[in-house]
Amino acid sequence: MFEKLLTSPRRKVLDALYQLEETRRKVLFVTDEEGQLLGTLTDGDVRRWILGGGDLAGEIGQVCNTSPYTVRLGEHRDDIKQAMHRLQITAAPVIDDRGCVIDAHFWETLCGDEEVENHRYSLKNLPVIVMAGGKGTRLAPFTNVLPKPLIPVGEKTAIEIILDSFVEYGVDQFYLSVNYKSKMIKAYFDELEPDYRVDYIYEDKPLGTGGSLCALNGKVSGDIIVTNCDVIIKADYHAMVEHHRREENDITVVVSMRSYDIPYGICDIVDNGQLCAMREKPHYDFMVNTGLYILKASALKLIPEGEFYHLTDLIDEVRRQGGRVGVYPISEKAWLDTGEWRQYCETISQIKSA
User: Fold this and answer.
1) How far apart are CA 38 and CA 35, in angstroms?
2) Which of 60, 119, 276, 303 could form a disulfide with 214 if both were Cys (CB 3.0 to 4.6 A apart)?
3) Cα angle at 25 between 68 and 80, to 5 degrees?
4) pLDDT in tens, 34-43
């Protein structure tokens, strides 16, 4: 496991983001060929690089912290805990006399479960709203029979996988916004009898990706999470909420990093059809909306009652009123989409190979 936390300074930033999410340790140790520590790279370092306009094809050596806190063999456990708490870090590399990384201390192994929970935001009182009212026409003919949330993904339904991913972080209050085949969805959960609480927001007519949320105005407070019913996010929800609160955002959009290489030469022309430039096999990086959002509940008062309204409309309104709308980037491997056939099949393959 420890070897999976080591990386080269010449590795690409996007590859590092994959590695960080796969190890779930939030930190990598950047070493040279001899194993000597050159720096540390956290998920926060990568996000700051991306949000600052940094190139995903850039090298880790440009991004990492080159003066990290380190531990020598024989240092007292309590001293290490105090230093990590003061610096607000979750991992510290152990180095030998040559400066080579030989081990690491992690906050969760130094502390008991109670201390670990106190070190991060609790999501127990943070409600999650799942927008589950759409017809799912891109998944026909499955959705001619079943509502999209009940489409099987491996051994469970899509919506069970989504809710279970939040339950792992302590969430126990869910609201399902339903319309199409809503009776089937309610009957499914009535029979499932989950340990968490499920309440329903019934749409008499389709209200878009955000219109039904006005029903919760005044009923929820603090922060809330809103997600589509066809996206499975494999990332750290604690880190997302911490980022949202630290940045004091009214809305945080979780985005996936997507890279595309065009295998052809791209021609740029001017109005008269004359070639002005040619770019050979260009590379593009995009931040794509995953359909998962963290909102201040106070933003719900901006949603008009009973009107077709998208969450993108709410984002525009918050920005128009001077509010803060930020993004939280994750890698494309951390975003599984079941909303159309090709993506659904890819998700099934990834779950089977996990």
Assistant:
1) 9
2) 303
3) 45
4) 999 999 999 8
